[in-house]
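B., you asked whether I could sanity-check this one before it goes into the benchmark set. Here's the sequence:
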Amino acid sequence: MSSQIISFISPEEYLKREPQAEYKSEYLNGEIFAMTGASRKHNLIEGNIFGELRQQLKGRACEVYPGDMRVKVSFNGLYTYPDVVVVCGEPIFEDDTVDTLLNPTVLVEVLSPSTERYDRIAKTTYYRTWDSLTEHLLVAQDEVRLEQCVKQEDGQWLVYYYTSLDSSAELASIGCSLALRDIYDKVTIAPPARPAPR
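And here's what the prediction gave me:
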């Protein structure tokens, strides 16, 4: 999310403006936040995850959307565009335009340096208010790292960390698996900087 803010408007005005806007924007508490463009690495990772999930969900009662599917967090009225969205069962939309999903099952955010703090703290907190959401993934683009947040039966969330290309994350709630080697296919990750000799 960028810091470019447009003066207070209603959710109805935001939804009216958004289809004609030059850039996608998020909306929260009467403010519109223009979304910044994604890097090559970001786009590759997003595409790889979307492709893997789409293939695995073929023929099943789930739909997977790339980053243009808007979702609404009813808890606080946030409208946003996760990088990948999965909904299993009957999708519920805000209205007849069928462009704002209300019941995601799995969400994926590819972290960017400019938005990581917001995605990691605020969005994660907002996302966890959905009854429908079962898993939430945070994927780094400058290092091999996937954080898988999984809702437990008691409503608490457990976080699993994957940092090796040889690892795979099992998305039990939708019966899918994401191998990190596939997530980072064609993505060049610089080796960690070595400390300077003393």
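One thing to flag: The CA atoms of residues 25 and 34 lie 4 Å apart. Otherwise nothing jumped out at me.
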